[in-house]
Amino acid sequence: xxxxxxxxxxxxxxxxxxxxxxxxxxxxxxxxxxxxxxxxxxxxxxxxxxxxxxxxxxxxxxxxxxxxxxxxxxxxxxxxxxxxxxxxxxxxxxxxxxxxxxxxxxxxxxxxxxxxxxxxxxxxxxxxxxxxxxxxxxxxxxxxxxxxxxxxxxxxxxxxxxxxxxxxxxxxxxxxxxxxxxxxxxxxxxxxxxxxxxxxxxxxxxxxxxxxxxxxxxxxxxxxxxxxxxxxxxxxxxxxxxxxxxxxxxxxxxxxxxxxx
Length: 261
Prior knowledge:
Elements: H1 2-16, H2 24-40, H3 50-58, E1 74-79, E2 85-88, E3 91-94, E4 103-108, E5 112-117, E6 120-126, E7 135-136, H4 144-147, H5 154-164, H6 166-177, H7 186-199, H8 201-214, H9 220-229, H10 254-259
Parallel strand pairs: 3-7
Antiparallel strand pairs: 1-4, 2-3, 4-5, 5-6
Helix pairs in contact: 1-2, 5-6, 5-7, 6-7, 6-8, 7-8, 7-9, 8-9
């Protein structure tokens, strides 16, 4: 190999040392011509040339070039979160849920994020661009009970909730907003809206209204408990107006004081 470098230096660089070039393109073209001439020059002590040896012996065993050009990469260690995503550069990428709580290696290039566990690649994602906090989620990475709801989306649940009532719609929006990955809220939304089949639409709406009077972010469980215990049927008592003083026995009116004057 070192001998070949020496031959190249002598044959090409020395031959071009006195020429003047006005662009890198001109220089490369001149080098290419001299290299072609060198490769086809007959050997002195054996038949053939470098080019003929390449065709007869080397070309057939060459491996193909990679489909994509080599890219510089940055490696990071990340922990798979409970929502089966890893956080990389403030973006979230899904990982098969079996790796939850495990540490993984992430290879980051300008276009791809690859995730490795014990030197084996377990998934890859196109690199997310734009605003922070975006999610790249692959359906196959979800647990089976999450995959059931992939045909649904937040808008579909909100439309169903709106048909039941205003308060039910607010609760569904709150449930979806409480999850970093929207799909993780689909199961709770489905369970909530199905309560209308068991308890009636009016009771579900009343239970959602009651739950919202306690907290702006009620859960499916809290509303289910309200329906199971019948709290949605208890009406709020109206406060007695303070101006109606005749209903209080201890209050002395003006007539009392006139009698004792």
